[in-house]
Amino acid sequence: MTGRAGARARRRFPVRTAVLTLLALAGGLLMITPFLWAIGTSLKPSGALLSLPPQLIPAEPTTSAYTAVLTRFPFMRVFGNSLLVAAATTLGQLVVCSMSGYAFARFRFPGRDVLFTVYLATLMVPFAVVITPLFIFVTRLGWANSYAGLIIPGMFSAFGTFFMRQFFLSIPRELEEAATIDGASTLATFFRVVLPMTGPALATLTVLSFMGSWNSFLWPLLIINDRTLMTLPIALSTLQGLYPGQTQWNVVMAGTVLATIPTIIVFLFAQRWVIEGVAGSGVKG
Q: Could you say which of 70, 167, 195, 265 has the lowest number of CB atoms within 10 Å?
């Protein structure tokens, strides 16, 4: 009976694997279809945008839409602004959130739990509610129309602090106690013992922070009036026409494709680092 049951299990296993593989392929195809459609639309000439039936692969591909994007506004300047703001915001958020998360996870001080609860409660407040007092605060500091106004407010994240705190709580305290016995200070223990083990968490936070800053539209729209400081989402919004029928969707899709490339690169890099971090951060006991 055992042999028959094992044979039936072996026969069922390939079927189960095939079904899961097909579902994964179907889900992946469904997720990538909008991006493929954007690429196809960006390569179409203006006269083929409304052709029926719709074509995913254009019959006569052209790069004129990409040329239009590069000439409508100073693309390299705008791209550099977005890259600088996103990279600086991400780096600052990694530093602030990792250190504050470690403090909430390991240090004991009066009112710690209450402070963390209040800090965490800010996640339930929509950004549209706090954007007015934040704008007043930033302008009174003299950060309007500056990189400081674009970067510094994004360095502080309640979600990032909560995320890093939860990861620090999963690290055994024995490692830090051993480092303390060896004479390491608190900062040395944090940077040399604890932080190297948080590769997966830092990689995940990097992706989320970079994507959030790169795609930010409302805050740069409010705090920036100087066109030389314009970020890519604001620049891409100028590609849409003021009236129906004026929008050149091939140009809009070309700008969308160009804006998506950096986030894909960051995600691919972080994905590989997550795997390396998981493989190298295991604790053997």
A: 265
